[in-house]
Amino acid sequence: MAWILANLPTIAVSAVLVVLLALVCVYLISLKKKGKSTCSCGCGGCPMKDSCHGKR
To answer: d(Cα 43, Cα 37) in Å, to the nearest integer?
Structure first.
């Protein structure tokens, strides 16, 4: 119990970071399922558009 109390700030910050990472992953997966780009600038002028998304 003393170890947990001694490291409580580190545990709390780590938990917040894990939650934020999970939220970002859920957001990116939802964008992928909707077929939207994650870079938010479109693929019209991108030189890597064919290798990134492939032919539809």
So the answer is: 8
For the question of whether the overall pTM of this predicted structure is more than 0.70, the answer is no
Report the C-alpha gap between 37 and 2 in whole angstroms: 47
DSSP annotation of 43 reads S
Q: Give tens-digit pLDDT for 2-23.
A: 999 999 999 999 999 999 999 9
Residue type, 37: S
In one-letter notation, the amino acid at residue 31 is L
| Tokens linked to 19 | 């939650």
Give the C-alpha separation, 28 to 38, whole Å: 7
